[in-house]
Amino acid sequence: MTAVRSDGERQLENIQVQAGQPVDQGDVIGLLPYTGPDCHVDFGFYEGWKRICPESFFVPEAKQSILRPIRRAWPSAKMCH
């Protein structure tokens, strides 16, 4: 997401998976073009237009690998708010 249309278009062009496509650990799902020092990835799951907690989709090892780097800065971080 960005306020600059051309940046947004580049971001969308770099998504490398399709809706419903299964992925495995290590698969590249997309690339984030560097658009400035605050660029980052928001990762989410949706059912229709409703955002849902993705925790149930991850085995415990995958969940911990996602949370490990986050918990360095926020020790009490959870997978979902």
Can you tell me about this structure?
With 81 residues, the chain is of the alpha+beta class. It is built from two helices and two strands. The protein has a two-stranded antiparallel sheet. The longest helix has 14 residues, at 60-73. The protein is globular and about 35 Å long. The chain starts with a helix and ends in an 8-residue tail after the last helix. The model has no long low-confidence stretch (mean pLDDT 87).
What is the mean predicted local confidence, pLDDT? 87
Strand order of the largest sheet: 1-2
The overall strand count is 2
Number of helices: 2
Rg over alpha carbons: 14 Å
- Share of β-strand residues: 5-15%
Helix percentage:
25-40%
Shape: globular
Distance between the termini: 20 Å
The sequence of SSEs as H and E is: HEEH
- Mind summarizing the main beta sheet? 2 strands, antiparallel
Task: Give a nutshell description of this structure.
It is built from 2 helices and 2 strands, in the order αββα.
List keywords for this structure.
81 residues, 2 strands, alpha+beta
List the helices and strands and how they pair.
Blueprint: H1 5-13, E1 45-47, E2 50-52, H2 60-73
Antiparallel strand pairs: 1-2
